[in-house]
Design goal:
The complex is a heterotrimer of chains A (520), B (418) and C (368). Chain A is α+β, with helices and mostly antiparallel strands. Chain A is built from 18 helices and 12 strands. In chain B, α11 packs across α12, α12 packs antiparallel against α15 and α13 packs across α14. Chains B and C meet through α1, α2, α9 and α13 of B and α6, α11 and α14 of C.
Chain lengths: 520, 418, 368
Amino acid sequence: MVISDRQARLNTELSHNLDANINIITELYGNSADLTIHPFKAGPDQIPGAVIVLEGLVREDSIKAIQRVILVDSLKLGLEAPKPQEFYQLLKERLLPNYDLTELDNFDQLCENLSAGHKILLLTGVAKALDCGVEGYQTRAIEEPTAETVIRGPREGFIENIRTNTAMIRRRLKTPNLWIESYTIGDLTRTEINLAYVKGLTNEKLVAEVRSRLQRIDIDGILESGYIEEFIEDDPFTVFPQMIRTERPDLITAGLLEGRIAVFTEGTPFVLLAPINLWELLQAPDDYYERATIAMFIRNLRIFAYWSSILLPGVYVAIVNFHHEFLPTELALRIAATREGVPFPVLVEVLIMELAFEMLREAGIRLPQAIGSAISIVGALILGEAAIRAGLASPAVIIIVAMTAIASFTVPAFDLGISGRLLLFVFLVLGGTIGLFGIQLGLLLLLIHLCSLRSFGTPYFVPMGPLVVADWGDVFIRTWWWKMLRRPRLVGSQELERQPPGQRPRPKSRDEDGDYENKS
Amino acid sequence: MAVGSWYCVFGGKQQRRLLILFLLLAIACAGCWDRREPELLAFVLAVGFDKDRDSGDYKIVAQIFNPLAMSQQSGGEGAGGQDKRPSWVVEATGRTPFEARKNLAPMVSRELFWSYARVVLISEQLAREGIRPVMDLLERERQFRLIARPLIVEGDISKALVSEYPLEGCSGQALLRQLETGDKMRSIAPVIETRELINILSQPGRDLLIARLGVRNPKKGVLGERKLDEDEKIVATPPPIYLGGGAAFRGDKMVGWIGNREARAHHWVLGKVRRETLVVESPLDGLPVSIEVFRAQSNMKPKINGDRVTMQIKLQVKGRIQDQVTASDLVSNREALSRLELRFATLIANDIKAAVKQAQELNSDFLGFGNVIYRLQPREWEQLKSDWPQLLSQMKLDLNVEAKVTVAGLIKEPVRIK
Amino acid sequence: MKIKAKIANRQLAFILFMMRTTVTIALLPVLTTADAAQDAWLAAIATFIGSALMLIAISALGVRYPDQTLVQYGAKLVSSWPAKVISLVILSALLVIAATDVRIYGEMLITGFLVQTPLVFITAGMVFAAAVAAWQGIEVIARVAGALFPVFLLMLTLSLTMVLPLVELKNLQPVLARGLMPVIKGSITPTAIAAQMLVLTILIPALEKPRRATGTALWALLGSSLVLVLITIVTVGILGSDQANRSIFPFYVMVRSIEVTEFIQRIEALPVFAWGFGLFVGIATALYCLAQGLAQVLGLSDYRPLVFPLATIQTVFSVQAYKDVFELLSFFKPNIIAPYVLTWFVLSLVPLWVAHTIRQLFVQKGED
C-alpha cells in the first residue's frame, strides 16, 4: 500500500472491540518499536482496556499514575460491577478530569494525537478513545540566539516548541488584542503553524491575504519556517528575502506593534515577520535599544557596508581594468606596482579570491566550532600571505576581498548578507567586461527589480522607491523614541499614531526649583 | 500583433529572466574591448614637447614610471632582483605631436598611458614657433588632462627629465611637487594649468606668461665647482632644476624670457600673490629687513581718452616682518614704520613698472591690460582692439600701491645687546 | 483601454526634472549651439521662459481631459483617423528625442571612456534597461526615478560644489556686450529640446491629480532650469566661454579638467553616472509612453508586447539616424532643430487646440 492509501485507511471509526482497535493501531504503526500498549483489567468485573503511548514521548510515571487511577482509585469509589460504558463515563467524569481529556472516535485523530505524545486510553465495549492529554516533551532550554547576538537587549531566543514561543510573545504583549490563529499544515508531519497579529493594528486585508496564502499550502511535511516562507512570499525568483526570519522575541514583538504579522512554525526557533522592506533587514534590534545618535551612525555604516559589499570588487575591477585615470596618481602607481608579476587578469584574480573566501566561509559554518577557527586562520593568514608571497595575488585584491567580506558580515540578516554576496559576482562580471558602464547598467537593473518587488503588497524598496522622505526617520536616521510618533506608513496605516507628542525629556527649569546643587 | 506575439515570448516572467541571462552571457562573450590590465600599461608621469632643429618635426619626450622599482622598495620578493631605476625617459619624432607620440609605441614594451602626465614641458624652440598644435592635442586627446601644468624649459628637456631627485622617486613626480611648493612659497613663477592656458589664449587682449624651468649644469653643486668625494656625492647632489621667471607670448608664440621680478609683477597685477618675500632697506639705517607678503589684492580700471589709455592699478598688500638685519626698532616707531611701508610699496611699484616696460618692449600683453578693457568696457574695446599692440606701448600707468606691515612675528624689536 | 497605474504628481516632477536636466547638461546647448558665449547663463534663463510656454501648450490641453491620453481625447476632438495620424506624429517625436538622447550618451562614453567599444553596445544596453523598466510599468519607472532622484541631485551638487572654488567670475564678463540676439539664439535649441515634455500627453491620465499636471511640470522645469543656469555659470567660469563653446560635452570637459585636491581630482565619474541615471529615467518614460500610445492607436488591450519591439527600433534608430557625431551635433543647430520641432507642433498640437477652441465656442453658444 502506498502512502496515500495508508493515509486513507486512517479515516475509519473505532469499533467496540478492544482487540480489534489495538490490532488496527499496531498494524497502522507497523509494530513500531516505540509503540507501547499497557493493558489492564479494571474494576470488579475485570473490564479489559489499554493505555497506549509512544514510548519516549510520555513520562513513565505519568502512565503509572493513570494506571493507579484506573485500577486503584476506581475501587475506592465502591461501585459494584459497572458496565464498560458506565466505567468509561466514570473515568471521564470522576476519575481523570484533571487530565486534559478529549474524546476521540476515529483513527485519524487518534494516531495524530498518539504521535504528538498523547496518552490514549481504550476500553472494551466503547467505540471511543479517551485522550489523556500530553504533558509536553523534552525541549531545549531557552538560550540566547547564537546567530543574532546583541550588545544590549533581551538575551532569550525562541526554541523549537511553538507554545513556548507564542508564550514569549504573550508575556511581552499583554493585551487580548494579540490574536493567534492556528493552522495545521503538512499531510504527514501535521505541523502546527500559528499566525499572530495585533487585532485592530494590522491591516485586515493583510491578515486575510496571509491567511489565504497559508491555507493554500498543500505539502506532505513542514520541517522549518523556510518551507512556509517559500510558499507564501511574493516573488520566489529573487535573491532578496521578503520576510524577516528571526529567533528574537523582541524583534517579533516590535514588528507586531508596527502592524505586521508573525508566522510561528512548530519545531523551529525561526519565526517569520512580514511585510518588511529592504532597509528593515539592515536594522539590528540594538538600533532601538542603543542611544539614538550612536544607532544612527551604525545604521548608516551598515547601509554603506551592504552596498559596498555588493559593489566594491566590481568597481575595483572596472577601474583597474577600464578607467585607470580615475585613481589618484600615487594609488594608481602602487596598484600597478603590486600587480607586477601576477599571472592572472584582475578579473580572474578577484574571482578566484572571492570564491576561495566563499568556500572558507562555508567551511567555517559546517565545521565544529573548535576546528572552525582553525580553518579561518589557515584560510585568512596562511593562504592570503602565501598567495601574495608567491606573487599569485596582489595585496590590493586581498584587501578588497577582505573588506567585502567584513562589509557583508555587518548585515544583521544573514539571508540578505548572502544576497549581497551573490550579487557581488554579477557586478564583478559586469565591471570586468564593460567597466563602470556595466556597473551602472547592473545598478539600474537591480533598482528596477527592487522597485518592482513587493512584500505582501507593500513596496519593498520604500522609502527610497517610492520616495517617502517622511519615513526616512527610521531608515537613514533613527529618531529618538519620544519622536517616533507614527508607525511606518505602509504597514501601520490602520492606526498611524504611535504615541502622543511632547514627551521630550527636559530638566526642570531653574525658575521653578533651582539647581539640584543649591538644594542639597 | 503578429510581430508583437514573437516578443510576447519575453513577456513571461521566466522568459524575461532568461533574456537577462542571455544578455549577461552576451556581455561576457562580447565585452572587453577596452579592457587593459594595469600591469601592461606604462604610466607616463611627465611629457615634453620639442621641435627637431633639422627636420622641423615634433619631438615628444616621455618619462615613464617603472613599477618594478616600486615593488622592489616595498620589499616584494617577486620582482626581479637587480636594481631597477625608478623611471625611463624615451623620445620620438613625428610630423604632428600625435604622430610623434605614436612613434613611441614600437620602442616601449608596454602601452603608454598618459593620464598621469601632470607636467608638460615645452622647449623654447617649440614655444617660439607656436604652441597651438601641442595644446590642440592636449585638449582633444582623452588621456591628456587639462590639469597638467605647462612649463617652458630653458635648456634641454631630456636633461630635466633624466636628472635624479634625492627626495622623490622620479623627476616627474618631483617636478609636480616642486611646482606646487614653489607656487605656494614664492610668487616668482607664473604656474598655470593647461586649462587656464587655453582660456588665456582665447581671451581678447591677453597674452600668455608661462613659468620657466631652468636646467642646471649638474656638475655645479652646493659645494661649488670643487670636485666631490664619493660620500659627499650622496648628500650633496646639486638641485638639477630651478623654477623662476617666465616666457612671455604673443598669441601662441613665445617672444622672450622675463625675469623673476617681472614674473612677480604679473602676480601683483592679477592679485595672485600667495606668499612672497621682499627685502626692504630700513629707513633708519639702510640695513635690510625681510618682509613676507601674505595678502595682496589688486584692482584694475582703464581710463580711455580717445586713443590714450591710462591703466589705473590699485594694489593693497599686507606683509609681516620675518627677520631684520638692522638692529633698529621699526615696530614701535610709527613714523619709521610708515616710512618702511612706503619703501615696501615703492619696491612693488618698481616691479610693476619694470614688467610693464618689458611688456611694452616685447609687445606682449601678458599682464592682461587689454582684457581689462574688454571686460569692463566692451564697446571701447571694439574700437581699440585692432591698434592694441601700438596702444599698449603708449599706455600710461596710474599706480596706487598701498602696502602695510601688520605683523612682526613673535617679537617686537631685535634683541638689545648690552 | 485605460491606464490603470497611478503615480503621484511628485513622482512625475522627479521624472521630468531628471529627463530635462540630463539632456541640457549633456551638450549644454545654451553654450554650444550658438555664440551666446559668456552670456550663456542668460540664455539658460531665457530657455526657462520659452520651454514653460511650450510646456503649457502641451499640458494645458491634456489637463482639460484628465482621464484620457492624447490618443483618446484627440479622437473626441478631431475624429478617429486624423487623431491617429496626430498621435503618430507625437509618438515619432518621442522616438526621435529618446533615440537622440541615447546617442549623445553613447557618443560621450565612446569618446571619453570606452574608446574601442561599439556604439550599438552602449545604446542597446541602456535601451534594454529602459525597456525592462517600461515593461514593468510607469509605477516602477516612477519609483526608480524617485530612488535615483536624491542620488542624482547629490552627484550634481557634489560635482558643482567641489569645483566652485575654481570658478572665476571674470570669465563671465563682459555681460551682454553684443546685445540680446546671441542670447536668444542660444536659447532656441534648449527650448526645442523641451519637446521631451510631449510625454505628458500620455502621462497625464496616469497621475493622481491630473488637473495639477501643468503646475507639477512647471516646478520640474524651474528646478532643471536652475540647475542649467548654475552649471552654465560654473562651466563658463572655469573653462572660459571659448573653451566651453568648442567642447562637445562642456560640462564633462570642465569636470575632468579640474583638480580639487591631490586625492580628489578625477571626479568626472560623478556627472557621468548622474547623466546615465537621468538618461535612463528619460528613455524609460519615453519608451513607456511610446508603447502605451501606440497600443491605444492600434487598439490593443496591453502595451507590453510593444515595449521590446519599440526598444529594438529605438536602438537601431539611435545608431542609424546619425552618421557620426558631427551630424548629431548639426541636428542641434538652431536653424535645424527649431523648424523640426515646430513642424511636430504644427502637425499635432495646433489642430487639436483649434478643434478644442472651436468646440469650446460651440458648446458655450449652445448653452446660451
